[in-house]
User: Which sequence fits this backbone?
């Protein structure tokens, strides 16, 4: 490792899927030398062509850090193999569960002083190197799990990696990590799949009445079943515990609704569940880990043609208003859509006035 | 009723919440005379100020159509009272369940020949007259349920209402309607609440690892528990049946994960559920009831300052590209965000080239 304060000059990425390739892209933007390896030569070629680094040759010079970006159950074996050939000074991984690879690494006799388990929370609905982006980690949490044997230099190398990728380092114990991701990612995924599964056999009439709510609830259910089977297998007990609690809550709600249908009883257990849902939903941080933000929403009707939004943003610009988020909704066969402009609450009035003054219809 | 092909010249809206007020706004845009009534005088005043119509006076001239926009369990009593005073020639409602108000209306001895039950699928996360919009029904399904006693003129009046509001009329039997909305709205709402409820007592560390997936799954769980208790009470049996099926699927998935955690068994029932989730999710129509659309996504880094998006849309305009949807993601404390521009697949390459030629960073 050089004296450079960045701490890492050369990195080997093993596994050029979405996350591995994105790590390479991010590091290359900072001039870090990146070597790429994957069991699929085509995936390495795509990653190289995207500019994520150069193909790795076993037996070449030792790199500062190896990033093992393979499915959870293969992390420990790769760690052992790389350590045997002294491929890197330090090692980390990016798998979505942490207890399993750490236990397996200990079981295989890996050197745990040079290894820090990690997990960038940066999944996308797409997968594979072609979906990779250098900015996928920007402002996102990146969990890391130093153990009792971990050398401070290994932690520093991983913190440098997280810093270079623009992530927010979050130190967490492996078991706490796995319980957390079961709660905020793995169990919600299975629940979304269970809701979506009811639609597989539904009538076209029923699906024709679907709105934005069910689309939101089930969006993640479009994820790759094979990939998610691996993720869920590696975090089986924590996910099972949460799914059991969710199933029990839904069973109680169903029983109360059954009783109401027969006896006209009140559905207090359902109301109670909805209230707890309110409480839980309100605790989810905003887009990038900050507290939930309330932007004001300015709605404006826009024509469905090129340039309409450009003119709209030009008005916002001239009014000195920064648009924090935009949602567009177009109606089919109609020349009009509605744009929802999310702005700081204090800027909403001025923006609406400016838009109206320029002839926009702000309902 | 006049000879006007529109069929309805005057409408009474009872209940000036989100839907009732939006109906008034939409009808006013077509010059229809709109009278507004609500048990809360303040709600009527807000709706009048928004331009949704004028306050109704009992005993005034008979209107062509009364739109009863009150919670499901109060629809029949309003219908009876309005019919007693011959307030309107025809009647409809907009409640989210249909079997209950129709049964109650029959039980109360209402005239069923002049009544057509209806339900515009146009909910928003907000509620109340201030959230009303004339365009909230544009391109959305609007279910209506004529019965064996319904007069053809009553159906024509309701179809005129749907047409004036810009909705897509969908004829459906009351029981089929209620099963459909249980599947695509009510049960998903409860399931989202059950997932969100697990977060109420979670650690800050766990919530700090939350990403876009769990935000999507739980978004609707932010809805008003009192309002949803009423909705779910009115559709208890169909919702109970679906929740039981979802709970059973989740229970089986949990059992398979428990077995895997103890014995290292395969989790085939989970994979199977994920596959069924894939199949169901892919059947959900696109934004406005059409088949799901695949837009190409062009990603571009944008500065977090006024005018940046205006310049970007200007480039798209000059390239002749229509932007179908936009998602912005800003990283906190960073001057950069990523914009995802959704465009027709054939336009993506040209847009990316045009943006790059103007100095934009398209990863």
Assistant:
């Amino acid at each position: 490792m050089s004296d450079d304060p960045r701490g890492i000059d050369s990195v080997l990425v093993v596994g050029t899927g979405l996350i591995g390739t994105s790590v390479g892209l991010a590091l290359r933007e900072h001039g870090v030398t990146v070597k790429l390896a994957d069991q699929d030569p085509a995936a390495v070629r795509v990653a190289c062509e995207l500019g994520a680094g150069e193909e790795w040759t076993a037996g070449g010079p030792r790199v500062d850090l190896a990033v093992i970006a393979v499915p959870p159950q293969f992390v420990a074996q790769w760690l052992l193999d790389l350590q045997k050939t002294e491929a890197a000074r330090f090692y980390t991984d990016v798998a979505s569960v942490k207890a399993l690879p750490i236990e397996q690494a200990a079981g295989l006799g890996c050197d745990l002083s040079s290894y820090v388990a990690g997990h960038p929370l940066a999944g996308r609905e797409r997968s594979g190197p072609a979906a990779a982006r250098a900015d996928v980690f920007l402002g996102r949490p990146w969990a890391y799990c130093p153990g009792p044997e971990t050398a401070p230099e290994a932690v520093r190398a991983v913190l440098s990696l997280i810093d270079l990728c623009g992530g927010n380092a979050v130190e967490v114990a492996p078991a706490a990590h796995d319980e957390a991701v079961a709660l905020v990612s793995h169990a919600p995924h299975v629940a979304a799949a269970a809701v979506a599964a009811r639609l597989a056999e539904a009538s076209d009439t029923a699906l024709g009445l679907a709105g934005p709510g069910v689309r939101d609830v089930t969006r993640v259910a479009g994820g790759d079943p094979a990939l998610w089977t691996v993720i869920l297998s590696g975090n089986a007990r924590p996910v099972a515990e949460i799914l059991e609690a969710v199933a029990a809550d839904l069973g109680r709600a169903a029983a109360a609704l059954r009783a109401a249908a027969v006896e006209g009883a009140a559905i207090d257990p359902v109301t109670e569940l909805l209230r707890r849902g309110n409480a839980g939903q309100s605790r989810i941080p905003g887009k990038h880990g900050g507290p939930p933000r309330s932007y004001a929403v300015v709605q404006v009707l826009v024509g469905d043609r090129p340039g309409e939004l450009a003119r709209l943003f030009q008005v916002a610009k001239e009014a000195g208003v920064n648009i924090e988020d935009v949602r567009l909704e177009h109606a089919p066969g109609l020349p009009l859509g509605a744009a929802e402009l999310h702005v700081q609450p204090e800027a909403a009035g001025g923006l609406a006035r400016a838009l109206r003054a320029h002839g926009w219809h702000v309902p």
User: Anything to note?
Assistant: Residues 10-172 of chain A form a domain with the Rossmann fold fold (CATH 3.40.50.720).
